[in-house]
Amino acid sequence: MMKILYDKHIEEYYILPFKDMVTDLRSVKKHVYEPGDVILVKSYGDTDQHIWKHFLKIIKYMDIPTFFINIETSNTTLEDDLNKLCEEIIPRDGKIKVSLTHGAPVVSQPYINNFDIPDTICPYPFVNVDIRNNGNITPCCIHKDNENKFNCNASKDSISNYLDSDGLKDLKDDFLNGNRPIGCQPCWTFEDQNVPSMRTKASTVMQDKVFEINYHSTSKDVFALDLKLGTTCNLKCRICGPNLSSSWYQEIKHNFPETDKLPPIKKMDWLIDNSNDFWKEITSHLHNIGYISMQGGEPFLDRKHYVLLEYLIKNNQTSTYIHYNTNGSIYPSELIEILNKFDRVGISFSIDNIAQKFDYERFGSNWDIVSTNLKKFSNLNRSKFTFDLHPTISVLNILDADDIKTLADELDFGIYFNRLDTPDYFNVLNIPAGKRNFVINRLNQSKHKIVTDLTAMISTEVVYNLNQEFWLEINRIDKVRKENFVTTYPEMSALMRSDDRNL
Questions:
Q1: Pick from 134, 245, 248, 478: most CB atoms within 10 A?
Q2: Among the listed residues 417, 423, 426, 342, the one whose alpha carbon sits nearest the alpha carbon of residue 386
Q3: Residue 143, Cβ neighbours under 10 Å: how many?
Q4: What separation, in Å, do the N-terminal and C-terminal C-alpha atoms of the chain show?
């Protein structure tokens, strides 16, 4: 027996609020569809591939099988067009059922095609505000504002100044015109090398919003905030540096004054002198906020943001998704009590390795303490808290990716591998071309697809050839910290030698 779950004329969506399509389809999403269930879509007016493309992307995102979709149309070419799009967007599914029938358009007035969205679009400039460790306001944490087009710093400028900036307007226009903005080069580099980028991962990070964004709207509503409130940190991670960690800063100041060009540390903690004004201004943008991410430094050492959490609780905005990136060295009992008042909290742990190698890569840490903390976090209410390991893959740990995945499985945490961009000498593209097969073979031995997929990171002809810089940095820091890379990483040390010796 047929049961129609959804009955819509698709051309209606041209004149309805943009988010209505995903809202309507979300309302008929089922974990299991019955044989008679039907999602009926009618099309008797003027449509183009853009609106159908948007429709199919939502279907894919929601994992709604095309088997249950029926199309009624008077357009004789629509069946072929739809199946070509389906093959492009949802290749796993079969053809969509299309029936030719007569009908009258439900929309007689001209429409604005808000569904004309380039495949290269990125949601971050349209809905996200990122505040860097130095206070600079940008669309996301990896955008390269080398020309200082935004020219906004949270120590003196408001978020409204940033949202009204010519730099942001130009960036949005660039994306809407189908261009690849130069400031977004880190993402384009990843994608050109078949490595997932921050842009392509946006559908996961902003899964509740990505199909609701009307890219053609002039609205300046902010949905997501990425807040880095300073550089306070208890660790000196090898892939980090003094601009992001106060502990790194002190080590550089003490041991390498001849090479130090860092500003006074007070200047780097931009929030110290204007905290009241900043939080007052932030709260004026919270009416539409659905996602807030706290990063560092080490955010669990920074109590300044508690005022933001308390504001959200006081104003009944506990549905806001709160997210942290932490090094796992701290279990913040007081903060956990506050976070328990929110509906959803995500915590990502920067666990780049385990045991001795973890302590080497994240100097100042203690693996026994971190592993104990991870187990304590794992016992929190999983209907409220979600956890994942967020390892950054570099020369230091690419051979150990399987161990990190095993740890995630033991904890029942998700895992999200990211490739290190800078410093270049720690990037996996600095592994000599002739020695990459050893790495590829190691990754391919894993039973986990997410690990074997990492081969894409180095399966390229790009080679940085920064072997000398790599060893200079390794030896420089080893000497200060009384560590030994060669004995800690015998396999990778052999790979990174400048000679042709095999393992």
A1: 245
A2: 342
A3: 23
A4: 66
Q: Locate 321 and state its tokens.
A: 């998704």
At 430-475, the pLDDT tens digits run 999 999 999 999 999 999 999 999 999 999 888 999 999 999 999 9
Q: Report whether 358 contacts 367 (CB < 8 A).
A: yes
**Domain co-membership, 293 together with 370:** yes
Nearest to 454 by CA among 485, 425, 419: 419
Task: Write the CA distances from 59 to 8, 67, 71, 86, 207, integer angstroms.
Answer: 15, 11, 14, 10, 13
48: tokens are 């183009």
Q: In a 10 Å sphere around its CB, with 0-12 CB exposed, 13-18 middle and 19+ buried, how is residue 185 labelled?
A: middle
For residue 338, is it within any domain? Answer: yes
Q: Please indicate, yes or no, whether residues 357 and 250 belong to a single structural domain of this protein.
A: yes
348 and 493 share one domain:
no
The total of other beta-carbon atoms located within 10 Å of residue 477's CB is 17
**Residues 365, 280 within the same domain:** yes
Task: Please tell me the pTM assigned to this model.
Answer: 0.88
Angle (CA) 284 297 409, round 5°: 100
21 has a pLDDT exceeding 90: yes
Span 32-50, pLDDT tens digits: 999 999 999 999 888 889 9
Q: Is 160 helix (H, G, I), strand (E, B) or coil?
A: helix
Predicted confidence band of residue 268 (pLDDT cuts 50, 70, 90): low
SS (H, E, C) 234-272: CCEECCCCCCCCHHHHHHHHHHCHHHCCCCCHHHHCCCC
Say yes or no: 40 and 171 in one domain: no
| The residue type at 386 | T
Higher-scoring residue by pLDDT: 95, 183: 183
Cβ count near 273 (within 10 Å):
11
Phi, psi dihedrals of residue 222, rounded to the nearest 5°: -105, 130
DSSP secondary structure string for all residues of 274-314? THHHHHHHHHTTGGG--EEEEESS-GGG--TTHHHHHHHHH
Q: Are residues 362 and 472 in the same domain?
A: no
| Number of domains the chain contains | 4
Contact call for residues 286 and 305 (beta carbons, < 8 A): no
b/e map of 91-128 (b: 16 or more CB within 10 Å)? eebeebebeeeeeeeebeeebeebbbbeebbbbbbbbb
* Domain with 446 in it: 424-503
**One domain, residues 175 and 236:** no
Q: Are residues 228 and 293 in the same domain?
A: yes
Quick check: 391 and 362 in contact, CB under 8 A? no
Q: Are the CB atoms for 377 and 338 separated by under 8 Å? A: no
Q: Give dist(CA 155, CA 289) in Å, integer.
A: 21
Which amino acid makes up residue 365?
S
